[in-house]
Design a protein that fits this description.
Layout (H helix, E strand, L loop, with lengths): L2 E2 L8 E2 L1 E4 L8 E2 L2 E2 L7 H15 L3 E3 L8 H10 L7 E6 L1 E3 L5 E3 L6 H12 L4 E6 L5 H16 L3 E7 L3 H9 L5 E5 L7 H10 L2 E5 L33 H6 L14 H10 L6 E4 L4 H11 L6 H16 L1
Parallel strand pairs: 3-6, 3-14, 6-7, 7-10, 10-11, 11-12, 12-13, 13-14
Antiparallel strand pairs: 1-2, 4-5, 8-9
């Protein structure tokens, strides 16, 4: 595993990180599936530990909302006794209400409740990266910026930021002095160029999610459409009448595959080649998927001709 800088005050992070949304078990919000099938508590904890011990992965991303707190609890158990070996990122602002309703609360009164709850579930005295999970209200953001600064001074968090692709929102938070890291979606089809330029110009850390574009760039479904179970959030994302064509058209990238570089490796390598990528978090549920991702880190960067062809294919898919 190769390591990269994320932000001052945080240890370097492996190029691949664990995304723990899918490890928190099923979740319903407002009666609608918003999580992933249950792989089991022990399986999730074991996966996290194996990723570190066998692959060298040291970054993990979760949130207070995932599994209604269960994701954080599993992460906390997985890293117990080895906290200094991990860089832990969690998010605040999106919660599960008492009746299973979706609640977005990023207010100043809520902030300490969220922070202390995450610290307790994660079994730690500090969070390395603490991110807004939902956009702040401009009337509250100024007060929360002060609370984030206080939490830094107290050693409860090392860095802060937001999970978003909204560039204007990032500029707003940067102006408030509470933006060290941005978690954003980027992939071969949606490279997020303006966000990357913003991160580079301001020397901010970049945590990339969505590398496989909801499974479209995994290669797994190019010739056979996925069948998502009812408790998988992805069952809400796709129209069953068009799902075959939706996945098959991304097979256009197959011309760039070669021995030792299957589609998942191409997708990961293309994102890692961007200097504004600090780490790529995957939503995998199996060790084999993480092992394959780790192997992609050892591949050479795409050459200029390959990158140009990626851009041409992405443009053709966007125009279709």
């Amino acid at each position: 595993m190769r390591f990269r800088s994320l932000t001052p005050g945080c240890p370097e992070v492996g190029e691949i990180g664990v995304g723990a949304w899918q490890l928190g078990g099923p979740l319903k919000l407002d009666g609608r599936t918003d999580g992933h099938p249950e792989i089991g508590r022990e399986a999730a904890i074991g996966l996290i530990r194996r990723c570190h011990d066998e692959l060298g992965i040291n970054f993990i991303d979760t949130a207070e909302q995932y599994g209604a707190g269960e994701s954080e609890r599993r992460v906390g158990e997985a890293i117990a006794g080895r906290r200094d070996e991990w860089v832990v990122c969690t998010k605040f602002g999106a919660q599960v209400g008492p009746a299973g309703e979706r609640v977005n609360d990023v207010s100043a009164p809520r902030f300490p409740v969220s922070l202390e709850g995450s610290l307790r579930r994660l079994r730690t005295d500090h969070i390395d990266v603490y991110l807004y999970h939902t956009p702040p209200d401009p009337g509250e953001a100024e007060a929360v910026a002060g609370l984030l600064a206080d939490a830094k001074a107290a050693g409860k968090i090392r860095a802060c930021g937001i999970s978003t692709n909204d560039l204007a929102l990032c500029e707003f938070l940067l102006g408030l002095g509470c933006l060290d890291v941005v978690q954003f979606a980027a992939n071969l089809v949606q490279p997020a160029g303006p966000m990357r330029a913003f991160l580079a110009a301001n020397r901010l850390g970049g945590i990339v999610r969505g590398t496989f574009f909801g499974g479209r760039l995994s290669g797994r479904y190019f010739h056979s459409p996925p069948e998502f179970t009812p408790d998988d959030i992805r069952s809400n994302w796709f129209d069953r009448d068009s799902i075959v064509g939706e996945f098959a058209r991304y097979a256009a990238f197959e011309e760039l595959l070669k021995p030792g570089r299957p589609m998942p490796a191409l997708a990961i390598r293309g994102v890692l080649d961007e200097p504004s990528t600090s780490t790529v978090i995957l939503g995998a549920k199996s060790f084999d998927d993480y092992a394959a991702a780790a192997r992609a880190c050892d591949l050479p960067p795409l050459d200029p001709a390959e990158r140009a062809r990626v851009g041409e294919i992405a443009a053709s898919l966007s125009d279709a």
